[in-house]
Amino acid sequence: FFHFYAGICSALKLTVPSHTIHGIEGQPLHLSVDYNFNATASEIQIIWLFERSQSNPKYLLGSVNQRVVPDLEYQHKFTLIPPNASLRIDPLHLSDEGNYIVKVNVRGNGTIAASQKIQVAVDVPVTKPAVHTEPSSGVVEYVGNITLKCTVDRGTRVAYQWMKNGKRLHAGPNYTFS
């Protein structure tokens, strides 16, 4: 009996990306999941859940033998891609950032199950920067100072870099950055 039980435990293998998956807001995102098992199966069930921190997991969709049962609230957004257990999210929104949990159940002469978690981060493309000058005329005679202020409306992980004639500017007697 012990040998049979150990064989059942190791019979199902789920392969998912091990690192955080970055998607772009407004674009589709593909979460790649492969599974294989060394048992005879009469039924294969796939379940996808989504969890944000501090909230209960939400059911997205599931399938039994490739017949998909979506959550009606999300049926136009999430797609199961047979024959593997991959999930397509289209389009991706900021609110889709979090953990996606995939669970696979295989029923043969017993039921074996495995689940994995995929972390998804949503990146927002940086909008075109706007530069404002003070004084607004941009004309400074000899001794005056000019302030250049750069802003962007949207974007995740924004980094600013000032250039002059294609070369990076560094802080010094003529330039200060804040």
Topology:
Blueprint: H1 2-9, E1 12-15, E2 21-24, E3 29-31, E4 34-37, E5 43-51, E6 58-64, E7 67-70, E8 78-81, E9 86-89, E10 98-107, E11 111-123, E12 130-134, E13 147-151, E14 163-164, E15 167-168
Parallel strand pairs: 2-11
Antiparallel strand pairs: 1-4, 3-9, 5-6, 5-10, 6-7, 8-9, 10-11, 12-13, 14-15
Strand-pairing-aware structural class: mainly beta
What is the end-to-end distance?
70 Å
CATH architecture group name of the largest domain: Sandwich
Give the SSE string.
HEEEEEEEEEEEEEEE
Number of helices: 1
Unreliable residue runs = 1-10
| Main sheet makeup | 6 strands, mixed
Protein name: HECA2 protein
Domain Ig-like: 129-178
InterPro entries: HEPACAM_domain, Ig-like_dom, Ig-like_dom_sf, Ig-like_fold, Ig_V-set
Membrane topology: Single-pass type I membrane protein
Question: How is this structure best described in words?
Answer:
- The chain is mainly beta.
- It has 2 domains: 13-123, Immunoglobulins (Immunoglobulin-like); 130-168, no CATH class.
- The chain contains 1 helix and 15 strands, in the order αβββββββββββββββ.
- The protein has one helix at 2-9; strands at 12-15, 21-24, 29-31, 34-37, 43-51, 58-64, 67-70, 78-81, 86-89, 98-107, 111-123, 130-134, 147-151, 163-164, 167-168.
- β5 (43-51) and β6 (58-64) form a beta hairpin.
- The model is unreliable at 1-10 (pLDDT under 50).
- Residues 129-178 form the Ig-like domain.
